[in-house]
Fold these 3 entries.
Entry 1:
Amino acid sequence: MLPNFVAQRDLYEARERPSKVYSWPVFFLSNMLTEVCWNTAVSVLLFVTWYYPIGFPRNAVPTNTVEERGAAMFLLLWVFLMFTTTFGYLIQAAIETAEAAGNAASGLFTFWLVFCGQVFSFLLAGKPHILSDKRAQAQQTNTHTGF
């Protein structure tokens, strides 16, 4: 994604900006619209090959929330892919080369993942989480067969 964006940005800056055919927001929006289509296709592939083989739908049977949890997981995957794409575009728009932008994006994304749980657990202290609340209401059954 990043090297492709660099080539398109260079083309935009060399040809489209001086001719004023379209502006930077239109250029960025057109790139994002193509990424929305690709991210949707990839999120469907990710969801089908990850959610069902692991057996996540069986977790929601006691609470009768199979469809809600499936939809929530699909949207979570889709939003995660959209976040990584827009985050990559944000970094690439500010940095000249794809290699430096890739290094900066990887470092910042790792930093974000490392400290995300620490910051939000402090902010949400005392507030019940949605999934843990539903699991607490479920009747406890032992279906683990072991290995």
Note: The chain is about 80% helix and 0% strand.
Entry 2:
Amino acid sequence: MTTTSTKRKREVRVRIGDWTSPSSGEVSRLVVHAELGPSRPEGRTHQTVDHGEVTDPWRLSLTGDIRCRRAGSSHWGDGGGGQIADYLPLVTAFAQADENGAGLGWDANRVLGLRRLWQDWHLNDCKAACSHMPPDAHARWEAKEAVVCPETGYSYGSAWLVKPLTGEVLIALAGLFGPEFVQDVTPDA
């Protein structure tokens, strides 16, 4: 018997804000693209970072675009994109809700919350370390040092582990991207 997930992918693009280069006067605009959908392949049981199991977990993916406008120009050019979380603290002119209340207003605290969420939960179904490994597990692995779970013997990077989305993460996502983004999403059990 084949089962299919009823989870549907949802996406949102949100303008976070701008910053101006003090040396060139160039303005950079940062836009975040958030996607929440079923992990692939569907119908499969995955091992979690705590060595449990979860079937059909949710996957959170965060990317961004940076658009640039030279001083005195009205044209926005392509400045790059992808994993731009490190650029979030540069934003000084935050995007605000419009006069009709549409859109989400941003400030330094919301941007900090987005950056933390990005660092901890981006591609939550592709984690190389289990929860029992030290925070520097990746650096130790890159230095060709064996990194092994002290509880189970799992070797760093030998599988993609899932960090199941929690209710707290879903609340944070709703606060950052609006309640529609997580509507009908339940925490992974």
Note: The first strand starts at residue 10 and ends at 20.
Entry 3:
Amino acid sequence: MDFNASYQEPNLKLRNTQSHAKFVAPEKVPSTTYKPQLNALHTRNFYVPAGHMERVANLSAAIAGELNLPKHMVEGVYIAAKLHDIGRPLIKGGFEYDYRDKNEAKIGYEMIKHINFYAPVAKMVLQHHEKLDGSGYLGHKGEDIGAGARIIAVADTVESSMRKMGNWNKESLKIALDRIESGSGKLFDPQAVSACLKLFRVDGYLFPEKVRYTGVISNIT
């Protein structure tokens, strides 16, 4: 997939993203244009491991920057990743969430599809579990999966793999990166995988220290 061509803005210059290990989330996101609508989502209780969506959002935006996507798409990917699990229900305190419930992406999509984002954020949320071979939650495959969702799928896999191992050391990182590398071209977009591998192996990307912990939260901040 030609990520830039898919957004028809290949000549739009991005902010400097060379220092990926010090990547800072896009300024003023979410926009005040739809911030009240997003704030309303705080009234919904749902299960998500603490720090998960912020870690995925930062890595997703860094990958998008590495792929030289237009600024508005980098920010759109960041927002979508920050919201990607909003469709998860909270069941008796959260720990009984059934990961076999494959409706969460659809629920999340329905919750935000009415918000007029400047990027296809709702579609990214809908497709963030999709795989190139069609083995994802909804069976979308190949070119039917949007570029933003492809990026979030890679970032989500790396973060989830490391988190489930209970640490953020070199060993868990190697296992996580090996997982996306082995699935490159079959499950995950090769360009997104290559960009992610470069971020960690060459540029020394690290998840923001302030969110390198585990637990349960029930809001989107």
Note: The two ends are 32 Å apart (CA to CA).
